[in-house]
Write a structure and sequence with these properties.
By secondary structure, this protein is mostly helical. It has one domain. It contains 11 helices and 2 strands, in the order αααβαααβααααα. It has a two-stranded parallel sheet with strand order 1-2. α2 crosses α3, α3 packs parallel to α6 and α4 packs across α6.
Length: about 250
């Protein structure tokens, strides 16, 4: 990891910008391919009606999201070069601790931001656009108003600026965690069998159906990685646990 950080420090802004774009395109392609396979594999566990073919606005928003995420990656690198963000080469237990703690901090911040995004004026300004697609598909993960893309990216960059020293391995791991949870929450199907869904950990870790439920009813299930904040503040769907524990979770009402 020391060699990776040393190499990154020697890059120029143009190289970083190209690399960030290539990386974000790769994440987008992986999400589409993996998501498409999961939807086909578990199509018999569909939670929502099959979505209509993507329209022009969806395609445009995904392009804008990839470009903005790439720009945020460049911004993060510049802040690291300027000393505002501190990265370490730690691996092992330290990296795992950073990953878990950073994910929990971001989960809390995203819950708060998501709650604010559903206040009437802010909702109409930006977040309403995402909810124009109640029957999600893997690409819906990227169908966001540009302000939301910048808000989420800006939030994790801001947290990094206050972190005493984030493991670079943990940061890479967090990008993967965010992609996995975002993708699973926008499949429109529930890939986990009932024996997995009934495990105690999934009372607190959000299943794919958790975020699908939010798409069907925007007033509930505001969390992303966990159900902790929804349970604490009373925004969890009262039917969520029964659906999670059921042998057949069934479809959400249209």
């Amino acid at each position: 990891m020391d060699a990776v950080l040393a190499r990154a420090a020697r890059l120029g802004p143009l190289e970083v910008a190209v690399g960030a774009l290539a990386g974000n395109l790769a994440l987008f392609v992986v999400a589409l391919l993996a998501g498409g396979w999961l939807v086909r594999r578990f199509g018999d566990r569909r939670l929502t009606p099959a979505p209509a073919p993507p329209d022009r606005r969806e395609r445009l928003l995904t392009v804008v999201a990839v470009l903005l995420n790439s720009a945020l990656g460049l911004a993060g690198w510049l802040l690291w070069q300027a000393g505002w963000i501190r990265l370490t080469a730690d691996t092992g237990p330290r990296a795992l601790a950073d990953l878990l703690l950073f994910s929990l901090v971001m989960d809390a911040l995203m819950y708060g931001g998501h709650w604010l995004a559903h206040r009437r004026r802010l909702y109409r300004l930006a977040h309403e656009l995402h909810h124009a697609y109640p029957d999600p598909r893997p690409a819906t993960l990227f169908v966001l108003h540009p302000l939301e893309v910048l808000g989420f990216g800006g939030a994790w960059i801001a947290v990094l600026c206050f972190w005493p020293g984030m493991s670079a391995a943990a940061l890479a791991g967090y990008i993967g965690v965010n992609l996995v949870f975002g993708l699973l929450g926008h499949l429109g199907v529930e890939p986990f069998p009932v024996r997995v869904r009934r495990l105690a950990v999934f009372r607190w870790v959000a299943l794919p159906m958790f975020h699908v439920g939010h798409h069907r009813d925007p007033s509930v299930n505001l969390g992303f990685y966990t159900t902790v904040w929804d349970r604490l503040f009373g925004t969890v769907d009262p039917r969520y646990d029964a659906r999670r524990l059921a042998a057949d979770p069934g479809r959400y009402d249209p």
